[in-house]
Design a protein that fits this description.
The chain is mainly α. Helix content is 61%, strand content 6%. It is elongated and about 100 Å long.
Length: 196
């Protein structure tokens, strides 16, 4: 009965244009691929080689506490963005800083796992944490700000109006110079700032 089922499955794969022998080889090869725990170990070793021992210790601590118990035995290439997001959400409930450190470590370790020398070990195709942003408390201010309509008008007028500067040269003779383009204006402002 098992042989008939396997033959039926093989015929189904062939009808879909898939070689059943190649698929079995791929599945067997995938059995030996690195897990998330292996990826953590590889990343920590890389950090120690790069003489970043304190960060390596911190990564090991947060990975042992949060990452490895949750998905440590899963193949690293099969981890999804949703799984990482759920994990980080649960960590963020305990503390935003730890969640951000874990997110940063996961992004970096997947970056290491995607390097050519580790391709064979992990076969990672994408970084599941790359699109996940940092966690901020409601009291933290973001650094983005939109200009008001009045500020846009002032900026537009400043950038489209020629700007004239007057002064005296080092030999005592007066000068006047008009700047026409925004680039020239920025250069003139920088010169005035640096030269007083």
């Amino acid at each position: 009965s098992d042989a008939r089922r396997m033959a039926r499955d093989a015929r189904g794969l062939v009808s879909q244009g898939i070689d059943p022998i190649e698929r079995r080889k791929t599945q067997q090869a995938d059995l030996g691929l690195g897990t998330v725990s292996d990826l953590v170990n590889t990343y920590v070793k890389q950090l120690k080689r790069d003489d970043k021992t304190s960060w390596a210790i911190h990564v090991r601590d947060i990975a042992d506490r949060d990452l490895i118990p949750a998905i440590g035995n899963k193949q690293a290439r099969l981890v999804t963005e949703e799984e990482i997001g759920e994990l980080l959400e649960s960590v963020a409930e305990r503390g935003l800083t730890v969640a951000n450190h874990l997110r940063q470590a996961i992004r970096a370790m997947y970056g290491v796992g995607m390097q050519p020398r580790y391709r064979r070990k992990f076969k990672i195709e994408s970084n599941p944490a790359i699109k996940i942003g940092s966690y901020r408390s409601k009291s933290q201010k973001t650094r983005d700000r939109n200009l008001s309509i009045d500020e846009i008008r002032i900026l537009h007028a400043a950038l489209t109006t020629p700007w004239t500067t007057e002064g005296t040269r080092s030999n005592g003779r007066p000068y006047s110079q008009t700047f026409e383009t925004p680039v020239e204006i920025r250069i003139a402002i920088m010169l005035l700032i640096y030269t007083g």
